[in-house]
Amino acid sequence: MCSDLLMAAALVLMLLAAAVYAEAPAGGEAAPERWSPEKAWEWYNNQPWLVGFNYLPSTAVNDTEMWQKETFDPATIDREFGWARQIGYNSCRVFLQFIVWKADPQGFRKRFEQFLALADKHGLTVMPIFFDDCAFSGKEPYLGKQDDPAPGVHNSGWVPSPGKKVVADRRAWPELEKYVKDLVGAFGRDKRVVIWDLYNEPSTPESPALVESAFRWAREAKPEQPLTTCLFGGGGLPERIAALSDIINIHNYNDLGNVKREIAARKGLGRPLLVSEWMCRGQNSRFESHLPYFRQERIACWNWGLVAGRTQTYYPWGSPQGAPEPKVWHHDVLRKDGTPLDPAEILAIGLETGALEMRELVPTAEPMPVAWHYASDPWPGPDWARPEFNDSKWRQGAAPFGTPDPAHARKPNTPWKAPDIWLRRTVELPDVKGGALFLRVYHDEDVEVYLNGVLAGKAAGFTVGYVLIPVTPEGRAAAKEGKNLLAVHCHQSVGGQYIDVGIMQCEPRSSRRGARSE
Predict the structure, then answer these.
(1) Is 177 exposed, middle or buried (0-12, 13-18, 19+ CB in 10 A)?
(2) CATH of the domain at 260
(3) How confident is the model over 136-147, as pLDDT tens digits?
(4) 347 — phi, psi (to 5°)?
(5) Residue 393: which residues within 8 A CB-CB, separation 6 or more?
(6) 243-256: per-residue pLDDT in tens?
(7) Contact 332/161 with Cβ under 8 angstroms?
(8) 98 near 167, Cβ under 8 Å?
(9) Domain containing 405: what range?
(10) Which of 328, 444, 467, 517 is most buried (most C-beta within 10 Å)?
């Protein structure tokens, strides 16, 4: 992890390299017809905010298995792209495979066309990648049946493209040139392709030369889309890539502070910037923290992974064979049946992309005090949360309930100092058949919320602000149009105490009349 001083030094070197390479002689010059900054910004500003994912269908262990005729799986791609669009994604980044193209160029183009059609069907643009030096499997790419993944191992079947042996053999490069020119020539004016990523993480001794050649070959095919490659490697390669690329492209799996520092440095290059790989929960690269920043800065971004499958990238880097499924997934968002690992992540993506919106059904006390019936110790009995329970002898008070805490801006309207408090309130709900229900809760400490006598949600510990808790399927089933009984129990063991509860509904933005649009 670079210090701010090292980052600044790196930026100076990159700017100097960009200036030198712009006028370098033959053999080291920037590829002809590199876009001007003005053209790059015009293209970028005409795009929507691009929010995408790196994609391999859950049935493929690597890009060879994805693209071979025998294992190409359009039904799975169609289904998983549908899930992606529902979440709010509008783009995907996909790895191509040279050896599959070489074995059957016409068939490969046909399958890529089918892939683009499926992406377009679901409102997704595509960023294809030609070359890749990542080799998690330790093998060169090979045709035919691919090895099954090693249980518990991250990306155990991943192979490079075209493979390190081919990269090192200049006699094979004429075929690499045909590969790039064939696909850019066929799809270089296709609006479904948003940008070409020529080389993922170049890292062999011959990779810098192939980077140079890939840009030259692609430009000679005269695409209408911009060209890019991630800033990667050492020995001046990132600076050279920046001088060749129309759009600046980085990978960053680190926490938000690190991402902000790198993006601040790269902005000095004067070109639009995208993050084509990010999101690693174990390193605090998360949707809830990063997406609001990317949206604020309007930075295009593609997280790693969509559906957990044969690549097993939900396991961490370096996971040993036989490792159990981690409690915290490394990458990926959905399980194979389309259910989310974490509904809160889907909510974060949907709200930031505008695919989802929240509306308040039952207000908390944030805008104004809200009246409840309440009781403190002793326990009011087993039926306290049921609609038919008689709470006429309970006291009445206005939420929030608790003790003052200026450090967290807690200003209760009704004092609560006992270990436990029970709350009851009759609320009006509309028809909630569409969309997901959430409890909006500020709790210190453990809280249980009931709807018409059915547990609708609970959480342990304390918060220092309002959080969303998904309503249980049972609680959702108990909700009805009209009057409903909302009941709350909060237990405090030590320190401050505070409780306030409301209900929100999350739904697709276009699902109801009058929904606002971006």
Answers:
(1) middle
(2) 3.20.20.80
(3) 999 999 999 999
(4) -60, -45
(5) none
(6) 999 999 999 999 99
(7) no
(8) no
(9) 359-508
(10) 444
